Amino acid sequence: MINNVTTLASNFSDVRFTTLERDILLKLLIFSSRTTAWLLGRNNAPITSIQRWQLLMKQLALTAKILRTGRFIQQFNSAARALTRKHQDYFLAYVTVIRQLLIAVYLTFDNATIFNSIGFIPWKGARRLEIRAFRIWFAAGVCGIITQIYSLYQLNLPNQVPEKQLIFKKQASKLQLLAGICDVTVSSAARVRRAKQFDCHPQPRGFG
């Protein structure tokens, strides 16, 4: 028993998550919890079961929001470097730069509402800003999907890339494609939910 626990602990100690992998994992968990709550609602499940998954979704979303703090600076820098770099494929380069700029703007809006999200400094304009942020996130997700579909198409063409490297690139592209689909799904659902809340609690005209 002790040997099994020791082996399990040693295996966990070897696990390393990059920032990108952590973000993708959080997106998948948020997407899964949102989908589960929706399916339970469609099947007339007990309200307590639905609320449990909705609470998990909200807590995961808040965790992801906190972890995104300050990342808009890094994203603007990445977009600037991509814009000045020489590219062999201009279509892929332009779509990538547009996506990075959209993500940078989204992260800026997202960071601006973090104090409202944690309840530290509530302000009425945060909800409107979040709706705009979700729209930008949705657009960035669409650009990401286009980028990965185009990349997979290019990888399937005859080329001189070694087979192992080609397999790795395809797997990475498919993972990014899955992340893009999650981005589009989560952002559109969150925008609709926020818009409904905004309609239920209208703000003064011209505010925010």
Q: What value does the Rg take, in angstroms?
A: 20 Å
Ranges with pLDDT <50 over ≥5 residues?
201-208
N to C succession of SSEs: HHHHHHHH
Largest sheet: none
Pfam family, one: PEX11
Main location: membrane
Subcellular location: Peroxisome membrane
Keywords: Membrane, Peroxisome, Peroxisome biogenesis
Describe the structure.
The chain has two domains: 50 residues; 139 residues. Helices cover 80% and strands 0% of the residues. With 208 residues, it is an all-alpha fold. InterPro entries: PEX11. Its main location: membrane. Keywords: Membrane, Peroxisome, Peroxisome biogenesis.
Keywords:
single chain, 208 residues, mainly alpha, 80% helix, disordered C terminus, membrane, PEX11, peroxisome biogenesis, peroxisome
Describe, in short, the structure shown.
Its main location: membrane. This protein has eight helices and no strands.
Describe the secondary structure blueprint for this structure:
Layout (H helix, E strand, L loop, with lengths): L1 H12 L5 H24 L4 H21 L3 H14 L5 H23 L1 H4 L7 H31 L7 H38 L8
Helix pairs in contact: 2-3, 2-8, 4-5, 5-7, 7-8
